[in-house]
Amino acid sequence: MKRPEGFTLAGLAIWFLILLLLVNTSFGLVPPLTDLPLPVLLILVGVAVFYFVMLVFLLPAAPTPRTLNIQEYLLRIGVSAMLTIVAFALYFAQTGVDGDGGLVMNALAATYFSMVTFSTLGYGDYAPAAGHPQLIAASEAIIGNIHLGLFVAAAFFLLQDSARNGGGDNGGDGDGDGGPPGPKPSEPENSDLTQQVKAAQKPKAGSAASRPSEPGSDPDNGHDARDKPDAAAV
Questions:
Q1: How far apart are alpha carbons 32 and 51 in whole angstroms?
Q2: Domain co-membership, 133 together with 201
Q3: Are residues 135 and 220 in the same domain?
Q4: pLDDT of 10-42, one tens digit each?
Q5: Residue 157 CA, distance from chain mean position
Q6: What is the side-by-side order of every strand in the sheet holding 127-128?
Q7: Do residues 39 and 143 share a domain?
Q8: What does pTM read for this prediction?
């Protein structure tokens, strides 16, 4: 597999930055960045959603000079899923999640709630706070369902393509990045029988069908038309 493309590396960089902000929320390593304002949180969530919509939906569907490799697409879905989870977790860590003991505001609980919401498990031990966090949580559940569906579909096509090519090139732009080409499909086992049937269908040498027709001959019955009695004479 070739190295990740630029969009994938950019997604990983954004994911790492948001992860640092999420860790800073719990440990307070950089106090000015501990409590982020709501517009900044919404912007970070919007970046994750934008990455998902553009690189998972729009760009693969756009006409491009080359076809998107299935492995590359799977990696892109994985990066988008990680980015979505940490971006929403940072939002929930700042707004808090409702637990048994009241509102919980820490990175661990927020990450756990974000993963549960993303996968639509819904254990019920945590819930979003009242107001706009409920709408944000519902949006993450929808995005998570789409991620899982796309991942399963892409994995299915990858396995199908690998089985078709004998485990060689696993789909994509056909430039050999997925591995060496698989072995060519073998000839059918009944090739000898097919050749025998074709040979039997050929006209035999010396038969009437193989001889060129002479002038005045009747091709329907193989007899010379001159040998027939003249109907007018009879």
A1: 27
A2: no
A3: no
A4: 889 999 999 999 988 877 778 777 788 999 999
A5: 6
A6: 102-104, 97-99, 127-128
A7: yes
A8: 0.66
